[in-house]
Design a protein that fits this description.
This protein is an alpha/beta fold. The chain folds into two domains: about 90 residues, Transcription Regulator spoIIAA (2-Layer Sandwich); about 120 residues, Pectate Lyase C-like, CATH 2.160.20. About 20% of the residues lie in helices and about 35% in strands. It has four helices and 16 strands. Strands 5-7-9-11-13-14 form a six-stranded mixed β-sheet, with no helix packed on it. Strands 6-8-10-12-15-16 form a six-stranded mixed β-sheet, with no helix packed on it. The longest helix is centred in the N-terminal third of the chain and has 14 residues. The radius of gyration is 18 Å and the shape is elongated.
């Protein structure tokens, strides 16, 4: 980073990474410095959940929304924005982002009340998951809605999305390589089955229902059809 450039501080904590942007530089310069820092350490940031401390900057929805989308393109999930500015706090809330650490809003994380035997129980989510939302369940997860970039689904079993899957999906999270990920439009930011990560799919035309499975030690996508 060149001399005089905005200083970006990165620290790890329980829920992901805390990135602090000093108040000294204009937002546009601080944003570019952040994206450059992530680009220089792409492997480190890939798949990370980030809480961003923007100081006292009063940010508009268009500014935060643009940054969230650009981070999503880099496979980074923006889930919280910390600020002393009431305007920025209001903007973050409107975008579905947290404004405090360690205090998730009710309903934002869906978890089982009691553990269920893997492969025998399923969680039905009747809503669209937007950026910052996270669903985690020991069994299968079925979502009647879309999974937007910045949202995350983790399942001990399989994941079925009756809609577009554009966020992060991790099936077989406890090591089950027989788990699958199905969606009407399978275009995830990141897709994992057990310990395997899918490679980026090639460019394609109109979306078709697909199912990601493990074949010969790799995650591959196949047509999702009745068997």
């Amino acid at each position: 980073m060149t001399e005089g450039a905005p200083k970006i501080s990165i620290k790890g904590f329980r829920d992901g990474l805390l990135v602090t942007m000093g108040d000294g530089a204009p937002w546009e310069e601080a944003e570019q410095a952040l994206l450059a820092a992530i680009g220089e350490r792409a492997d480190f940031f890939r798949g990370a959940r980030v809480a961003l401390d923007v100081g006292s900057r009063p940010l508009k929805a268009a500014q935060l929304g643009k940054l969230r989308d650009r981070l999503s393109d880099l496979e980074v999930t923006l889930w919280a924005v910390l600020s002393d500015s009431p305007k920025t706090q209001e903007t973050a809330r409107a975008l579905g982002l947290e404004i405090e650490l360690g205090r998730p809003r009710p309903g934002r994380v869906v978890r089982p009340i009691q553990p269920h035997p893997e492969g025998e129980e399923a969680l039905l989510v009747r809503r669209t998951l937007r950026s910052g939302m996270r669903v985690a369940f020991d069994g299968h997860v079925v979502i009647l809605g879309h999974v937007h970039p910045g949202a995350e689904v983790i399942a001990g079993g399989s994941i079925i999305v009756w809609g577009r899957l554009r966020g992060v999906a991790h099936a077989g999270a406890q090591g089950d390589r027989d788990a699958v990920v199905c969606a009407l439009d399978l275009s995830p930011t990141q897709l994992r089955i057990a310990d395997l990560i899918a490679t980026a799919p090639p460019e394609r035309g109109s979306p078709v229902p697909e199912m990601a499975v493990v074949r010969d030690g790799q995650v591959v996508a196949e047509p999702w059809t009745a068997r």
